[in-house]
Amino acid sequence: MPGFAASSLEFEGAARCVYRAGTGPAVIVMSEIPGITPQVAAFAQRVVQAGYTVFMPLLFGEPMRPPERGYMLRVIAKSCISKEFRVLAANESSPIVDWLRALARHAHGECGGRGVGAIGMCFTGNFALAMMLDAPVLAPVLSQPSLPFAISKSRRPGLHASAEELAAAHEKIDNHGARILALRFIQDPMCPGERFARLRNEFGSAFEAIEIDQKYANPRFPKPAHSVLTNHLIDEAGQPTREALDRTLAFLKEQLSPTTQA
Length: 262
Known about the structure:
By secondary structure, this protein is of the alpha/beta class. It contains 7 helices and 8 strands; from the N terminus they run βββαβααβαβαβαβα. Helices cover 33% and strands 19% of the residues. The chain has an 8-stranded mixed sheet, with helices on both faces. Strand 3, helix 1 and strand 4 form a beta-alpha-beta unit.
C-alpha cells in the first residue's frame, strides 16, 4: 500500500491488518467489494491529503488488486458465507461492526479531536451508521450502502442496523452534533431509493443525500453505476461525482473540525 504503514491491530479477539497514513482527526475508511483496490486506495489518499489520519482495515480481498469481475464474484461469495457478515439482515448489523467500533475508539485515542469519521462503501456502507453506537463516530458517510441485499420488498428500505444502533445515532445527533451523509447512483439496484427514503424519514434534517444519475458515471466501468467515490468517479471539476467527492471531504471538515460547535 504505497504511502501507508501497515500494522496488525487486535480487538474483540481478532487481529487484522490496518493501513494508516496522515495526520489530523481519525477517519476509518472501509473498502467496498472486492477490497482495497487501487481506486479505494486513491480515495483514501485524498482523505489523507485533506488533513486526516486514515485507518483502513483489510476486511476482505487482496490489497491493491484491481476489481476484475471473477475476483469480485469470488470475494462476494466468500463474504456471504462468512460469520462476520449478515448480508440479509435488515434490522441488525454484521458481527464485524463490533471490531470496527473498537478500531474507531482506538483511532480516537491515538488522534484525539472531537470525534471520528467513518466512511463505508457498498458492503460496508451501513457499517458507518451502526458504528455510532459505543464509538465516537460523528461523521458517518454511507456510500452506496448495499446491505441488506435488496432481494425482497421488505429488505429494500433496510438499514442493516438494530434499534439500539439507530437510537445511538439519534443520541449522537441530538447531543453531539453528528450528521449523516449518504451517496448513491439513482439507478443502482444494490442501493435502492427506498433505503434513502427510510434514512430521510428516520433522521430528518440530520441526513444529507447525494443522488446522481448514472449518465454521469465513469464509462470505463460497467453499468449499472455503483461506486460513487471510486470506480465510477470522474475526477474532473464540474462532474457530479467529483462534486460528491468534494462534498464528502467538506462534510468531514464540518463535522470533525475542532471549531465545530456540537
